[in-house]
Design brief:
Radius of gyration: 23 Å
Strand order of the largest sheet: 1-3-2
Number of strands: 3
Mean pLDDT: 83
Strand content: under 5%
Distance between the termini: 38 Å
Length: about 475
């Protein structure tokens, strides 16, 4: 028997299509999660680590928490993917973990924000990575679970829009908080902490109480054959899986070893394409601020806007902030355009041309010293990137075996996480090689600026490889949504 009394197994006919409002509600938590990650990862995290370290050991302290955190994320994503695939409850197989992950995640965020020293901060961060990902992977799995295949492009577009807008609003909020409150750490605790909790809990409740996980389900799960193990992890929720090993961990490992990736060549090639593209994107995000500071005439640009030369010298981050914010605006445009384009030409078409647009516009960004041209390039890269992430994510949902969407989503998310671990080392090595080739004196500013140009240019290589790998992905076109 594959179900329990707590699980709704009554036959039902899933809707042929979801309304725009239903898809929006189904995707709403993504905005809150991206708002949190943008503010926490890009601004709060480095600032708080710096507050509890010195200039001599900041690099080690920051790298330590980020590297170990990445290991915890990967382990959590793979584990919760398997567990939620085999969960049964009145709420369905995903929602119990979304509720638990957000509730415990808010506690972990509070711990992190109020940490009195580095090691409390370290522990709080690891708890955040575990708990928030317990909610994130099952949440992302809802789209392939519930949205009809012919609406995956629109679902991916909405998720991409939520991603970009969440990042945009998160960065704007942090900037405003820094302007209003002079003490950053106090501002994070007074402004951001309650805002994080309200957004995460509010969007979670709107999602959980607004969808019918049983009635909308587009697939019927396979029945378990042979010995079955049952474990109760959460109140009202049981995990039932084939007893292929004595322990839950052993069963998870056995299950992943049997994941039929060889029978899913399209998913594999799409994963490899995304992995390669994110290697370039991670390098771009890591070094774009340094490229702007060292290669653009930002001081002259600020003076042309009426800022005095004396003040302009201290505002290097303004040009970077403008470029990044407009990059996100471009991303919103790209995500909104991706759905109609994907429905007409196919997801693979949108993924490929999104990559081409971002790569082509990267060339003048690398070569120019003009801030206005760089801003236009930032918008163009954002449009291409937004179209890419929306269509790529929707395509993955279409290719995933529906009975194991959680497990495959855990594997899929590693394509974005692993590049964040590997790319800094690869980009750093490229920087050192170029700098070493052209430096003629200690702290050579010209060689340093040239090295940043080469790192940003490396995006072209990664995107070209990703585009080449994409050639091997075959797409079966679904009937257009009405």
């Amino acid at each position: 028997m594959a179900g329990t009394a707590a699980d709704s197994t009554a036959p039902h006919t899933p809707p042929a299509r979801l309304t725009a409002g239903q898809i929006l509600r189904l995707s709403s938590l993504w905005f809150a999660l991206q708002f949190f990650w943008a503010a926490q990862q890009l601004v709060v995290m480095p600032e708080m680590v710096r507050a509890y370290s010195t200039a001599d050991n900041f690099g080690f302290m920051y790298g330590l928490v980020k590297s170990i955190g990445a290991v915890f994320v990967m382990a959590t994503q793979l584990s919760i993917g398997f567990i939620s695939d085999h969960a049964y409850s009145k709420l369905g197989r995903r929602r119990p973990f979304i509720v638990f992950g957000i509730a415990t995640g808010c506690c972990a965020i509070t711990w992190f924000m109020l940490a009195p020293n580095y090691w409390w901060l370290f522990a709080g961060y690891l708890l955040i990575e575990i708990t928030v990902n317990i909610a994130s992977v099952p949440f992302q799995s809802l789209l392939p679970d519930l949205v009809p295949a012919r609406q995956h492009a629109r679902g991916g577009s909405v998720m991409g829009w939520m991603h970009m807008v969440g990042y945009f609003v998160g960065l704007i909020t942090v900037i405003l908080a820094a302007l209003v409150l002079r003490e950053p750490i106090l501002g994070y605790r007074v402004v951001l902490l309650p805002l994080f909790i309200v957004l995460l809990v509010g969007s979670m409740l709107w999602l959980v109480f607004g969808i019918d996980e049983h009635g909308w389900a587009q697939v019927v799960r396979d029945k378990l054959i042979g010995a079955v193990r049952t474990i109760k992890l959460l109140p009202g929720t049981v995990i039932r899986f084939a007893a292929t090993a004595p322990t839950l961990l052993g069963c998870m490992i056995h299950d992943y070893r049997k994941v039929e990736l060889r029978s899913q060549p399209n998913f594999i090639f799409l994963w490899l394409s995304r992995f390669t593209v994110f290697l370039g994107y991670a390098a771009f995000i890591q070094y774009i601020k340094l490229h702007v500071k060292n290669n653009l005439a930002w001081q002259e640009w600020l003076v042309s806007l009426g800022v005095s030369a004396e003040v302009a010298g201290d505002l290097a981050d303004v040009a970077f902030a403008v470029i990044m914010l407009l990059f996100i605006v471009g991303g919103v445009v790209g995500t909104l355009a991706s759905a109609p384009l994907a429905e007409r030409f196919g997801k693979k078409f949108v993924i490929g041309w999104g990559m081409v647009l971002a790569a082509v516009v990267d060339v003048p960004l690398v070569l120019t010293g003009n801030v206005w041209l760089a801003i236009l390039c930032g918008i163009g890269i954002g449009i291409g990137w937004g179209a890419f992430i929306a269509a790529d994510w929707a395509f993955a949902c279409t290719l995933m075996p529906k009975q194991k969407a959680g497990s495959y989503m855990g594997i899929w998310d590693i394509s974005t996480l692993l590049p964040q671990v590997l790319s800094p080392a690869l980009a750093g090595a490229l920087y050192q090689v170029i700098y070493g080739m052209f430096a003629t004196q200690p702290d050579d500013a010209v060689a340093e600026a040239l090295a940043y140009r080469w790192v940003i240019t490396s995006l072209l290589v990664y995107f070209a490889i990703g585009l080449w790998v994409l050639r091997f992905v075959k797409e079966e076109r679904a009937t257009s949504a009405t």
